[in-house]
Amino acid sequence: MIRIRKLRIESESKPLVDLSFEIDGALALVGQSGSGKSLTLRALLGMLPGALTSQMEIEAPFALHRGETVAFIPQNPFTALSPMTKICKQWFASEEKAQKLFELLGLEWPLFRRYPPQLSGGQLQRVSFAMALSSDPRLLLLDEPTTALDPHLREEVARVLVELRQRFGFAMLFVTHDINLAAKICPRMLVIREGRAVESGSSERLLSHPHEEYTRRLVEASFANREFRT
């Protein structure tokens, strides 16, 4: 169990995010664009822009260190790696571990020595998963990792994430505006708006019986395959 308490992000004393939540297994952080989802991830990673400040209380069975106990998968797999450098030159773990993870993720081994633009979006996303898992993280943070993928690949990524978490047992915070996709990956979710919690609970309950109008509109937009914006 990882508890994040009194997470507050400010810009010139103006509060942008004010949240408390628990990551017990896999939690989805759901909201429309601009709701504070990505800011929350960046605060946990210590990657906020210089103009913003944050404070929080963390209770966890391990220290949160990016690249060690914490791994991050960004939004767009096409920008996560340098396009001019072969994947093998951007891999920092052993080649033996690379082979095992590539096999686990259904990636052909010759891809390891190719340039990122030579891979499809689905292949490149799986490579980003392999790189994140190469450090044996205890917490995986994902920022809209399916945005650049077509619907079929989004479903495939959801399946892969569930299988990976079952196999490796890491905790996961999955950020997305797609509440339907989030429910396929995480058993619980927290819905936020303008940096504040709207409602939380089991994914099944929020999809079938949302209490708040904002959540209901997110559900409707998700099943209509579009993003809800105000």
Question: What does it look like?
Answer:
The chain is an alpha/beta fold and 230 residues long. It has a single domain (2-75, 133-223), classed as Rossmann fold. It is 32% helix and 27% strand. The protein has helices spanning 37-45, 95-104, 121-133, 151-168, 179-185, 203-208, 213-223, and strands spanning 2-11, 14-23, 26-30, 52-59, 70-73, 139-143, 171-176, 188-193, 196-202. The strands form two sheets. Strands 5-6-7-3-8-9 form a six-stranded mixed β-sheet, sandwiched between helices. It has a three-stranded antiparallel β-sheet with strand order 2-1-4, covered by helices on one side. A hairpin with a 2-residue loop joins strand 1 and strand 2 (14-23). Helix 4 (151-168) runs parallel beside helix 5. The longest helix is centred in the last third of the chain and has 18 residues, at 151-168. It starts with a strand and ends in a 7-residue tail after the last helix.
Give the SSE layout.
Layout: E1 2-11, E2 14-23, E3 26-30, H1 37-45, E4 52-59, E5 70-73, H2 95-104, H3 121-133, E6 139-143, H4 151-168, E7 171-176, H5 179-185, E8 188-193, E9 196-202, H6 203-208, H7 213-223
